[in-house]
Amino acid sequence: MKIAARYAKCTVIFAAITVFSFAQAAGQASAIPTARLINPEDLVKLLQTSGKQKPLMIQVGSHVLFSQAHISGSEYIGPASSESGVQQLRKRVESLPRTKFIVLYCGCCPWGRCPNVKPADDTLRAMGFTNVKVLYIADNFGTNWVDKGYPVAKGE
Amino acid sequence: MASANRMAPDFTLPRLDGQDLRLSAYRGKLVLLDFWASWCAPCREETPHLIDLQNKYGDRGLQIIGVSMDDSPDPARVFYQQFHMNYPVVMGNAKTGELYGGVLGLPIAFLVRRDGRIYAKHIGATDPSVFDREIATLLQSP
Fold first, then answer.
1. pLDDT of A132-154, one tens digit each?
2. Out of A26, A68, A146, closest to residue B41 by CB
3. Distance CA B35, CA B109 (A)
């Protein structure tokens, strides 16, 4: 009986560790090298400078968040932490030249906890894209973009 | 806009079990309204603490209500069962987020007094001791 109880306890602990490890592994945004990041203020300057090449901006987070507010001109793809999100991303960019300037962003969670931007960045790198930047959102999209008064659109 | 001491905007949203939940039906209870999503790592870590709080204070008048900001109910249902959540979860949407001033990051929690007024808004993962202290204090008031 005691062995059974101990086994059950170990199983629960193992399951908890697995869930926690999954969450940690997913949240690897902080593993993206600094050279591949772009700050919100720099992206805004770039968008406002005429004559500069404008990037394709892709939101790789939740649609509910996108519908409330997203960067004007950006496109919704879906959470890249899921296989379907990654597939959507591949489909959207597969016909583009590999030198296309692309900016990925999410902003669902504090930077180190975002489960979406790293898989999206990895996907584009693996496909051979050489001009990809990931928008560094320290806290969340509301605090670091909307509240700063940067250009926002709503809806689909 | 939902800020401290304003009335919490009312809503009616579908629960994961398909029944409607109306926020104002909980007037008289202290409500912790928690916006979360199944893929949000800080939300996953916070959920067991919320379950503990519901267990600890439920019979004294606390009602936690989860508002899932997942794009569809399926992952929220899986999460609900995995974590053995002991409080109702409704499916939120962009309109609900806007009612509450924009839910543009997760988790975000609102503590709503018994009279329906917002006491506090917590952005990001909140230390369980902070919730515990606020809930204990507010449950003492009529």
1. 999 999 999 999 999 999 999 99
2. A26
3. 6
Domain assignment of residue B28, yes or no: no
CATH number assigned to the domain comprising residue B129: 3.40.30.10
ipTM, interface predicted TM-score of the complex: 0.82
DSSP A15-57: HHHHHHHHHHHH--GGGS-GGGEE-HHHHHHHHHSTTSPPPEE
For chain B, how many structural domains are there in total? 1
Q: Is B42 exposed, middle or buried (0-12, 13-18, 19+ CB in 10 A)?
A: buried
The verdict on residue B45 lying in a domain is: yes
Q: Quick one: closest CA in A to B95, which residue?
A: A68
Residue of B nearest to A64 (CA): B94
CB nearest to B105's CB, from A23, A143, A154: A143
Residue B32, beta-bridge partner list: B64, B111
What does the pLDDT look like over A29-77, one tens digit per residue? 999 999 999 999 999 999 999 887 899 999 999 899 999 999 999 999 9
In a domain, B92, yes or no: yes
**Domain region containing B84:** 37-140
B contacts of A27 (beta carbons < 8 Å): 41
CB-based contact A65 B69, cutoff 8 Å: yes
Residue with tokens 């917590």, as numbered in its chain: B122
Structure tokens at A50: 């005429």
User: What residues of chain A lie within 8 A of the CB of B76, using their CB?
Assistant: none
